[in-house]
Each structure stands twice: as C-alpha cells, then as structure tokens.
C-alpha cells in the first residue's frame, strides 16, 4: 500500500492526505461534501480506466483473468480512492446526523413556546377538560366475535376469487 501511495502523483497524494483523521475531524459538513465529491470522481476515473483498459486487452490475452495482471496499477489506485471515499463518507454521515439533530432541536425550541404560552400571574388556570364519552376500547384478537368476522371476510374474498378463476 505504501509503495502505491508513493507512486501517486502530487495532486492524487494531496487528495488522499486530506482523508486523514486529523484533517477530516476539522472539516464542516459542506467541506466534507466537497471532499466526498472530489474523491468519488477520482475513484470513478480509475475504475473506468481500469475496466476500459482491461476490456480492450481481453482479445489480446484471451480472457479477463489473463488481462487483469497487466492493469494492476489502475485497479490499486481505484482501491486506494475507494478506501478514502469510505472514510470521508463515514465522517460526512456523522456530520449530517449531528446537523440534523441540531436543526431538530432548534425547530423544537422555536415551536415550543408558541404552542404553550407561560401562565400569567393572577389569571385563573383553566380546569382540565374531561371527555364526555369514554374512549373506544380497541378490540383484541381474543374476541371471538371479531375472529368470526375476520374469518367471514376472508372466506368471502376466497369465494369471490374462486368465481373469477372459474370463468
């Protein structure tokens, strides 16, 4: 791996160096998104170059397996950028989750006081409202009448389907 890193040209090596933990932890979400795009482009470039070159050599060597060793450098470069992309993706996802949580907290804080204004001193507090009807109880599956009704519905659907199928 180090031999391959040493063989990268200067812009490629600078791009890989930007994916070190110390650098990634200092970037904002927008900076991480920009870096993610640049690394994805580099990975796609070498992946396409590898596939394109390998496909042209298939006829010459008689198969993809025989043509592969002749094009190792592009495949290894694509792998280096794939690893870098995975690191940046992880940091970008973490930053996105953090900013989403901050935005949610900000929205809840902004909406909270508007919903329930603080009580004014000296004003009478309203009594708790009591429902005039009892809430409807949800039927359970242990209810025999409900089971019978469900079975009748399923049987009716089966009969209807059987009629259609017999036509």
> Low-confidence spans: pLDDT under 50, at least 5 residues?
none
Number of helices: 7
Mean pLDDT: 83
**What amount of the residues lies in strands?**
under 5%
Could you give the distance between the termini? 69 Å
**Which sequence of SSEs, written as H and E, runs from N to C?**
HHHHHHH
The major beta sheet can be summarized as: none
Summarize the amount of helix as a percent range.
over 70%
- What shape does the CA trace take? flat
**Class of secondary structure makeup:** mainly alpha
Could you tell me the number of beta strands?
0
CA radius of gyration: 32 Å
Short characterization:
The chain is mostly helical. It has helices at residues 2-7, 10-17, 21-26, 29-61, 64-67, 72-115, 144-166. Helix 4 runs antiparallel to helix 6 (72-115).
Report on this structure.
The protein is mainly α and 167 residues long. Helix content is 74%, strand content 0%. It is built from seven helices and no strands. It has helices at 2-7, 10-17, 21-26, 29-61, 64-67, 72-115, 144-166. Helix 4 packs antiparallel against helix 6. It starts with a helix and ends with a helix. The mean pLDDT is 83.
Overview features:
about 170 residues, about 75% helix, 7 helices, single chain, about 0% strand, mainly alpha
């Amino acid at each position: 791996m180090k031999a391959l890193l040493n063989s990268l040209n200067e812009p490629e090596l600078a791009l890989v160096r930007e994916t070190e933990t110390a650098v990634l932890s200092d970037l904002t979400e927008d900076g991480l998104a920009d870096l993610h795009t640049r690394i994805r482009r580099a990975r796609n470039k070498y992946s396409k170059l590898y596939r394109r070159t390998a496909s042209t050599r298939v006829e010459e060597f008689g198969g993809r397996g025989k043509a592969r060793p002749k094009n190792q450098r592009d495949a290894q470069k694509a792998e280096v950028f794939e690893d870098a992309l995975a690191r940046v993706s992880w940091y970008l996802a973490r930053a996105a989750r953090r900013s989403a949580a901050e935005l949610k907290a900000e929205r809840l804080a902004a909406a909270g006081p508007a919903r329930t204004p603080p009580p004014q001193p000296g004003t009478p507090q309203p009594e708790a409202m009591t429902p005039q009807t009892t809430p409807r109880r949800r039927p359970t599956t242990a209810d025999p009448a409900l089971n019978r009704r469900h079975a009748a519905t399923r049987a009716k659907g089966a009969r209807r389907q059987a009629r259609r199928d017999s036509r």
